[in-house]
Amino acid sequence: MREIFYIRLPSGVSAGDLAEAPVDYGAAPTEGTALIDAQRAPLSQALDHAGSRRIVLIVPAADVRLASVSVPARQPAKVLAAAPYQLEDQLADDVETLHFAIGARQSDGSNPVAVVARRQMDRWLAPLLERGLKADAVYPESLALPHEVDEGAWTALIEAEQVVVRSGAYSGFSCSPDDLSLYLQMADPERSRPLRLLTLASADLDFSRIDWPLELRPGYSSALDAFSRHLQPALSINLLQGAYSQSPSLQRHWLPWRPAAALAAACLLVASVAYLIQNAQLSREIAAQDAANISRFQQLFPSQTRIVDLSAQVDQQLRAISGASRNGGVFPLLEVWAQALGANQGLKMQNVQYRDGALYLALRATDLQVVERLREWFASQRGTALEVQSADAGNDGVQVRLKLSPA
């Protein structure tokens, strides 16, 4: 197995100056291990030491935006193609100027997404291409920090000029040390997440200024040392996707397996045809249901003439009208129900009533399995209770009556 050659690129450096900008670099024998002979030098000199090692770039968190999309398709290529249009309204720049990369599909059906300007990607990769080198992976700083799922803590790496925070499996941000308390307060108003702060041996900072529950974790010689120890590719997003994917390099490794792959493809052909027919029928049904849901939404909110992400727009409208009533009444129930519709395909709303502190809903489902999935979805939601009052199956689906009330 080849050694890994890590390079941490700086922020705010123009394309012409990047080759001579100082960077931290060093090699590690395997993933998750400390650097061997870590050094700092201009990027052009650092690349002279890359040799035949795998090159991994760690790029500034401030230049990469993290988001999430929910696309019915499971194929990564289709999710990647749909991501720009789902996120279009959330982005200030034209999506044609942006590069999108996706992470592994999550248990709720969503995919994490990393967004970066194409010109920035070109700027990062240009010094390597000029020397005939190719990066094997490019990861944002925030997703190179440890993520501790079970303990619920956030992780941060603090330097003199910057703090990088990982606030979830695929979320994070960066800011100056002076602004850290403010950013944490905005991200977690309840102060429910303690912060595990990775500190550098060279750092001379007054941590008492950070008004937040802290746990200091020293022992790192540099930021790149911390990233190399904690980066887990399976829990991060490699930005080298789409137009920046390393397909030519992968193809060389793929060639010996082509005969076996051809045989497997022949065996799957018949099953694929049947799947395509079934998928086409299901797509028509989903399209009809989506059209009905959009029509209902536009009746309730006539100003919403453009539909990009129905679930997100329903959630946004409910948040906008709920205001101070968020903690009681009909709006929290409507908000949860909007999320349920977005997460469970195959439901068509017919009627909704609110009385005696509960929502009474009439809807049509494609089959009883949809009702069971809806019941399971609510079983994992705190603060609400779902009661299926009736579910009558017929030739045109299942007529369902539900009661949704605070738990």
Automatic annotation (TrEMBL):
Protein name in UniProt: Type II secretion system protein L
An example Gene Ontology CC term for this record: plasma membrane
Cell location: Cell inner membrane
Keywords for this protein: Cell inner membrane, Cell membrane, Membrane, Protein transport, Transmembrane, Transmembrane helix, Transport
UniProt domain GspL periplasmic: residue ranges: 252-405
GO biological process, one term: protein secretion by the type II secretion system
Chief location of this protein within or outside the cell: membrane
Keyword Transport: yes
Protein family membership: Belongs to the GSP L family.
